Amino acid sequence: MKKVIGTLYTKTEYSMLNSTLQLEALFSLHKERGYDFISLVDDNLHALYKFLKLSEKYQIKSIIGLDIKLNFREMNLNFLVYARNDKELKILTKLATKKEVSDELNFADVISDLKELVVVIPSFQSYILNNYANKELLTEIFKYLKERIKSFYIGVSNQSELLTNVTTYLKEIARELEIGLLPTRKISYANKEDQKTYHVLRKIENNLYEESYEDLSLITKQDLIKEYKKEHGIFDFQYEVFKNTKYTYLNNKFELPKYPTKDNVDAKSYLEALAKLGLKKRLEKIEHKNEKVYQDRLVHELNVIDQMGYNDYFLIVYDFVKFAKTNDILVGPGRGSAAGSLVAYCLGITEVDPIQYDLLFERFLNIDRRTMPDIDLDFPDNKRDLVIDYVKNKYGEKHVVTISTFTTFAEKSSIRDIARILKLDNSRTTAIINAMQKNKLDETDYEAIELISVAKTLEGLPRQTGTHAAGIILSKENLDDFVPLQKGPHDMLQSQLEASDLESLGFLKIDFLGLRNLAIIDEIYKLEKIDTKLSDIPLDDKKTFETLKNVETTGIFQLESYGMKNVIRKLKPETFEDIVALLALFRPGPMDFIDSYIKSRHGGGFELVDPSIDEVLKPTFGIIVYQEQIMKIAQMFAGYSLSQADLLRRGIAKKDKEILEKEKSNFVKKAIENGRDEKVALKIYDYIERFADYGFNRSHSVAYALLAYQMAYLKTHYFQTFMSVLLSSVTSNTELVENYVKEVRSKKYDVLKPDIRYSTDKFIKTKYSILSPLLLIKGLGVNTVEKILEERAKGPFKDYNEFKVRMKGILNEKNLISLIHAGALDSFGLTHATMLASTNLNQTGFENFLDDYKEKEFSELDFEILKAHEKEAIGFNLYYVMDLTFKTLTEKYGLENPDFTKNQVKFIGKVLKVKTIKTKQNANMCFVDFDCGKEEISATIFPKEYNDYVKLLDEKYLLVYASSSEKGYIVNKIEKVKV
């Protein structure tokens, strides 16, 4: 009779840093090596869903287990715990949760769970290996466990000489106590030659790990039988224990929590009433509206939502959005396809009118495509957690959880980890990485080859868990009945499964996104006390479009990248639709059409495909920019319903040859039935197919264009406040702060250095300037600044010495020096040299006892020293930008603010560094670093100009004429200046 044999102690890649076996490979290898079933025994259940799906795919029976360490009589014992049916799997899932949320798990805490499961104590663990000859001790332990656990067994491994000896002792104890033996060969890698990689992996986790000699490879079924040939009947017994194992986990259906309506009104009626009331309020603000269009659309959407069973979903989202809005938490205008829903607009979930912007509901919810709705919400990043807490508290902590993500090994990034384990020094490792990147690796360099080989075998393995940036799962059921959980951020529970697993199981994911831009808008509104609702800001404000046309988009959502600024410069947006198109076009693929779009936008003309679809393509000048256009073409030309058109869009986008031919045939057939010409139908289908990859979700583009415009409006009308809030949001990012400071100064406002008398932890708008925060100074953390402000609140600092006395215990000497260098203590009226001569906080205060005490004063340090100190203190120069001579010269030549964004630029430059090189023609040229006062630039001087101006480079100050190119600035002319 054929033996039914499988593995019972298999570690997968999700036993992070403890196995190199990736799931898909694990199943294919089991199939290839003759096994009848396969087990999952990680120290977590991250792989639960994927494991069961692969079991279906490969038609191999699966057993779900858990490797769990328990505190048993003040010692740590490993137990392998298995579930054989749905009831046991639910218990095992809860046990996996207890393991992850407990700091230490005691045997007594989980005995009730263990009684319901198959429990195996494996011989391959430290305690057994250290005490296997102590028969009395182990007999007493095993007897205790057998008496309390119904299905308790001893696991034996014969994969080394030591373990084989252990098995001999354990068999004798098992016979005496009548405890069954199970084969628990531990498996952590595919083949014996993978052992080195496995040891490297273990050392990455724990540098003190000592290599062992046990073979943890997946041997063949026949070799496994040979390995246990002395344990007669062990596989027959294994079969008896697990023969009825079966799960229906993948067939579970999960529901949303029920929204608690007033007076227990059914969800359908309640949603309908709210939506109709919301529509009435929205219509009151819309001029020249066709009410019937809105009402018909609302009825249609409500019917679809009800048929798909999502009434409670919309009510739940409506409820927490309402909570946010009534608790001073700004909500974004919308994102993604949800902006195409009139119901969402009427409920206040979105602020985009889908009728006005011609957005399609079927792009969001499609009755012919039963997928989960996807309403993603943006909140200020500093208030997002308040909304999540509200949802958690309303529906219960085990009904609302965050989601795990996994960081995986990448070949290049793991090389240094592996090199450390292989004891290679940094310079050697760097040399290998450089050679690899240049494809110049020496094939005889076996050390390097081995390093890269190990890195490749680790590639793709999970390294550690993280938390999904935005996703939250909501469920009617207690989630720990079905989903293994662990500790998440902010006292929340977190699913051990990742987002794709949960969505495939049918759980509903809602993304609560934290957006810094919303926090900026929120703060501007509060500081300026703006009465106009954000959604009521006019979308045709001329000044705002001047800001955009002038490419003053620094700090504006979606519009501040270098590439985007170049497109804006060419497009010169004049309408809100221009911004919508910008966001849709500025992506890989559609970028190829940007120039032709802009040419047509400015009257350059364009060709349309066919008059029958002119109405759809005219707004985008013959280019399919939006996915919704594909849907409308199919509807208008070929008679598709919008639901069918959405399926067509999705099918074409997959680029599968079989699907494309099928869709093409169907499109032409429907078009002919709709009275269209076959040749025209083929032409239009080919055009759709060409653009299917490029089309963008118009709903998303409109929603984000609205947010971008709102920020541009606020920047235009509240520039100082906008920039002070923007600067505060990036205080720790020196490069961004420096760039934003330049923009403030370009508008003739100054940014002042920190001042101990008035500065706080944020940039503050003053009448004609912006005051920098103490938090800008390197080394002063949030807590230190907070303590300084608390001390200052007790009374102003009188002078330098009194300040030092009050700062004892708050600042150290390094902090004090940083404050001096940053200019924050200049208001005490002393030179930096004077203050720097007295920075010992432990030797201050005695002057209070001397009537005639007077601080010894020193003359100020040289400008260049002060400038270097300031740069050290805050990362760039804020106050010490130009010396007196530089200031005089820039004023004299009218070059205080040279515009380096233009193709041609003229500036006063101070030569910092000159590097001369020879060209291929043996001519001299050079690269020069210039201090231009408010920034430093590098410029190239080619041979002709070099010969003309090389002698001038010895001058301290020069008048430089340069042009910009893709490779930087090129010097055209240099003039000597009169100082």
From TrEMBL:
GO terms for biological process: DNA replication. GO terms for molecular function: 3'-5' exonuclease activity; DNA-directed DNA polymerase activity. Keywords: DNA replication, DNA-directed DNA polymerase, Nucleotidyltransferase, Transferase. CDD domains: DnaE_OBF (cd04485), PHP_PolIIIA (cd07431). Residues 6-72 form the Polymerase/histidinol phosphatase N-terminal domain. It is an enzyme of class 2 (transferase). It catalyses: DNA(n) + a 2'-deoxyribonucleoside 5'-triphosphate = DNA(n+1) + diphosphate. Its EC number is 2.7.7.7. It holds the Pfam family HHH_6. InterPro entries: DNA_pol3_alpha_NTPase_dom (IPR011708), DNA_pol3_finger (IPR040982), DnaE2/DnaE/PolC (IPR004805), DNAPol_HHH (IPR029460), PHP_dom (IPR004013), Pol/His_phosphatase_N (IPR003141). PANTHER family: DNA POLYMERASE III SUBUNIT ALPHA. This is DNA-directed DNA polymerase. It comes from Acholeplasma hippikon. The gene is dnaE.
